[in-house]
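User: I'm preparing a small set of examples for a lab meeting where we compare how different chains pack in three dimensions. I only have the primary sequence for this one, and I'd like the structure in token form so I can line it up with the others. Please keep the answer compact; I'll paste it straight into my notes.
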Amino acid sequence: MTARRVALIVPLLMFLGFVALAVYRMGEPQQRVIASKMVGQPVPAIDLVGMDEMHPGLNDSDLRQGTVTLVNLFASWCAPCRVEAPQLAALAGKGVVIHGIAVRDTPENIAAFLKEHGDPFRRIGMDPNSKALLNLGASGLPETFLIDGKGIIRKQYIGQIRPEQVPQILNDIAEAKRS
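Assistant: Understood. Below is the structure token output for the 179-residue chain.
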């Protein structure tokens, strides 16, 4: 084999290896989940106005009242939020206290969303600029945080809550109540 042939074949083999690796990696599922560094930390300062008279605002002091609470970040325009609505209703039906943070949304759209998908929330704080979302270290919608009665973030559930997660979340809540 001449030096010229080697000079042509080696780059071709490297290119084919790169293409094979890229095709192989494209078949792998995207599992990049960025968990909040706030888990295990006190809830950051939150002071959100309420959606309406039925849903008062949310303040970080509301999360230090001795009650284990779920805080769900959602929006009416968020398709996965619609999918998780029955799971939130199931949790609320079992006595779980759930507060909502409505991200970049309007009270009118949220009211329509709650009318269509149910209302598991005791409080709904309006987060028009995503400030609370960023302070909590959330990476998108929906996300849910488990807050113990002392205001410490115990768990973070990224993405929509699926039916198979409900028993585990109930166990997590029971564990948080014991701590």
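A couple of notes for your slides: The chain is about 40% helix and 20% strand. Strands lie at 47-48, 58-59, 69-74, 97-103, 121-127, 143-147, 153-158.

User: Perfect, thanks.
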